[in-house]
């Protein structure tokens, strides 16, 4: 079982988008029984809130449902629970070092776009309102990540 945790600041936009995009990609490849996929945030500001309505609408445009998803904060124990922790930006990587109380988290924590040919931060669409770009970048990152993992499974 490959355990994947997506992480962004509040767990209401980018990380739930990653969670549900990857779940769909895994389903299309008939690999659901080999993956556990979840998401969380580095902040406690949004804990208990549903996915932000514009992120939810963007997922629905692509036939994806995030019904029943509520924000949660990443926990210290998540470091040992998950094989891959996929952050959306440098800020959250820094916050994860603090939450996990480790200087070196490079064995498990990656930025999602590190798996693509253009590694960079995925900007927060809650701030810039560009949910189209966020979806496209998260989708590209999920495809690249899944290809990376499938090579390891082969």
Outline the structure in words:
The chain has 154 residues and is α/β, with parallel strands linked by helices. The protein has a single domain, classed as Response regulator (Rossmann fold), CATH 3.40.50.2300. It is built from 6 helices and 4 strands. A 4-stranded parallel beta sheet has the order 2-1-3-4. Helix 1 packs across helix 6. The longest helix has 23 residues. It is globular and about 35 Å long. It starts with a strand and ends with a helix. The mean pLDDT is 97.
Summed up, what is this model?
With 154 residues, the chain is α/β, with parallel strands linked by helices. It has helices at residues 14-28, 53-61, 78-81, 90-100, 125-128, 131-153, and strands at residues 2-8, 35-41, 84-87, 109-111.
Keywords:
154 residues, alpha/beta, Rossmann fold, four-stranded parallel β-sheet, 14% strand
Which helices and strands appear, and what pairs or packs with what?
Elements: E1 2-8, H1 14-28, E2 35-41, H2 53-61, H3 78-81, E3 84-87, H4 90-100, E4 109-111, H5 125-128, H6 131-153
Parallel strand pairs: 1-2, 1-3, 3-4
Helix pairs in contact: 1-6
Instruction: Report the order of strands and helices.
Output: EHEHHEHEHH
Q: Provide the spatial order of strands within the biggest beta sheet.
A: 2-1-3-4
Shape: globular
- What is the alpha-carbon Rg in Å? 14 Å
What count of structural domains? Answer: 1
| Count of β-strands | 4
CATH fold-level topology: Rossmann fold
Helical/strand content category: alpha/beta
The residue fraction in helices comes out at: 40-55%
What share of residues are in beta strands? 5-15%
Distance between the termini: 14 Å
Q: Estimate the mean pLDDT confidence.
A: 97
> Can you tell me the CATH class?
Alpha Beta
- Unreliable stretches: none
What is the CATH-assigned architecture? Answer: 3-Layer(aba) Sandwich
Main sheet attributes: strand count, strand direction, barrel closure: 4 strands, parallel
Number of helices: 6
| Multimeric organization | single chain
Could you give me the name of the CATH homologous superfamily? Response regulator
